[in-house]
Fold Transposase.
Amino acid sequence: MLAEVLGCFAGRFGRVEPRRAAAGFVTGLLSDLEVKTCWQLAERAGHARPDAMQRLLYRAVWDADAVRDDLRQLITDRFGGPDGVLVVDETGDLKKGIRTVGVQRQYTGTAGRIENSQVGVFLGYAGADGHTLIDRRVYLPASWTDDRDRCQAAGVPDEIGFATRSELAAEMITAALGAGVPAEWAAADEVYGNSAAFRAHLRGHQLGYVLAVSRSHLVPIDGGKTRVRADRIAADLPASAWQRRSAGAGSKGPRFYDWAWLDDVCTDADPDDGGRHSLLIRRNTTTGELAFYRCWTPRPATLAQLVRVAGIRWTVEEAFQAAKSQVGLDQHQVRRWDSWHRFTTLALAALAVLAICAADATHNDPTDTGLIKLTVNEVRRLINACIIWPISDLAHRLHWSGWRRRHQSPSPTSPLRTPPQP
């Protein structure tokens, strides 16, 4: 599978050197290295210097978006199906300084507060056989797009202007559908569900959705004549309105919640879209905590279908966790626009290896082994145990120890001063 993933985009490199560097880069991301920067990946690949890995992210000639397209096609060929779900979410990386592309003090769910951080918006795909991430966008706040000199210093193309996170999500969904990704549904959290423009964009694609909204979200009822807070609607529901259903399998078995479905309400600004608007409410069976979803389908749907899509939204959280803990998605030390997209794309390639291997193993394994399903974490352990052998050559290890200590020397006469970050 590693060879298949690397092979799907090998033709995007015009020279053998960057193609080999990309293969070593993805393999290094799958390794058991604790830190996965260009230095560590170069040492792991047997290089004497990090130049090839840094050049791959900075100066080498290749199109990260084209590689992304190849990966997206491979993933949808493996996981694609008529009930596919496109899942949008964002994740933040805490940063120091002000020169890394997109960084500013902003809220990030990674820290749960406002921090100096960089935010990326990602698109996941979930099919019947598996799920993983298929696209990415770095979010540029207005403080960046209003400062063209700052953008130019970070390599941001001149045509890139300000776009909200929901607009970036809409761009990725449009690109995926235009590329033939089979999907009938979209799911996202409150950041996107609260956006009327984002909901309208999905309806324009005739894409059914189950989008989380805030408890204070104003729900239009009575044909849009009245707007009522979502939590107020929930408070007025009788006990008979709730049904207990599973939102899918979790690590400890089915995830049961109580659900209330108010069909044919929540009409948006376009009442003649031909679809069915509704409000879905989820209640935790233990804590009583409520969650709310704006739903729309181009054709009549069932409660079971909406509950399934609501449950699938959590696959993007699982993908983020795997991407960060297993393939170093958040360990890049790059500052420029192209370098961020290149590193992130190669991380998605490494994640695809794990996701497809785990899905294939689940599909092929017998059901009576008494073992849990093969996880992406265990797949990476097996890859390291069976395929990726660490370099134990003493001279190579000592060479890199010397390289690191010279390169980190504060002396201005050091022959290996730290170059600009890619």
Notes: Residues 190-312 form one domain. DSSP finds 16 helices and twelve strands in the chain. Residues 145 and 160 are 8 Å apart (CA to CA). The longest strand covers residues 113-126.
